[in-house]
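I am still getting used to backbone structure tokens and would like to learn alongside you. Label the sequence line and the structure token line clearly, so we can match residues to local backbone shapes. Would you write everything just below, so we can both look at the same thing?
***
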Amino acid sequence: MGEDNLCVIEIDIHKDKSIEEIDKIRQNLIDTLPPNVGLVKTAHGGLHIYCNRNYYRLPSNRNVKIAITDSFDID
């Protein structure tokens, strides 16, 4: 995969959750991902998901709060 196809998705888990809830949310997210993506746990307990965008043209190189849930936000 060329670096021009690399896509990083940031998951920010809401900080108002207990450590146990954050761990459970993060594990549930990990369990839904395919095994061929790269994962990094961030300093604040979220995730960076590294994946191949397969030449999909993103509308911007910076997408903030693309999805907002009760437990986490996706950038």
Q: What stands out?
A: The beta strands are 6-13, 38-41, 47-52, 67-68, 72-74. Residues 19-32 form the longest helix (14 residues).
